[in-house]
Amino acid sequence: RFWRLHKFQRQHMDPEHLTTNNTQYCNLMMKARNMTKGICKPVNTFIHEPKEIVDAVCQEANITCKNGQPNCHQSSLPLNLTHCRQTGASKYPNCQYRASYLTKQIIVACEGKVYVPVHFDAYV
Ligand code: ADP
User: Fold this and answer.
1) Cα–Cα distance between 12 and 82 in angstroms, integer?
2) Cα angle at 104 between 7 and 54, to 5 degrees?
3) Ligand 1: distance of its center to the CA of 43 in Å?
4) Ligand 1 centre from 69 Cα, in Å?
5) ipTM (interface predicted TM)
6) I need a labelling partner for 56 at 20 to 30 A (CA). Which of 12, 30, 62, 90 fits?
7) pLDDT tens, residue by residue, 57-115
8) Ligand 1: does its nearest atom lie under 6 Å from the Cβ of 5?
């Protein structure tokens, strides 16, 4: 199960960069984090907060995920996010994205003996 939390770190965690209005952020990061291999992943959200803050979301009350599973949790505080959405003109392998900079509460699914995020469900 280690790969799942590793995958969450790769796809969603970016504590190093702060929210800016860099229009290339998504184009660069979606590629750098291997989400443009085989297909262009259509949407993906990066979280610009320390790992401890994001891991702690798993300690919030359980809520139902989009897929009906009960293992989701919502952050009590808004977090700094960048949401990447593929543009209409984007064609694999030249994946192109538009970035939205947001401060929103996140909903993540958590799993494991060390109960940590494995899936980004939504922001609200
Ligand atoms: P993401 O959904 O974070 O963009 P993926 O879809 O690639 O990333 O991977 C999500 C992983 O989380 C899958 O391995 C999936 O089985 C797991 N998972 C665990 N709980 C849930 C849940 N409630 N909803 C969706 N995926 C979940």
Assistant:
1) 9
2) 40
3) 14
4) 11
5) 0.93
6) 30
7) 999 999 999 999 999 999 999 999 999 999 999 999 999 999 999 999 999 999 999 99
8) no
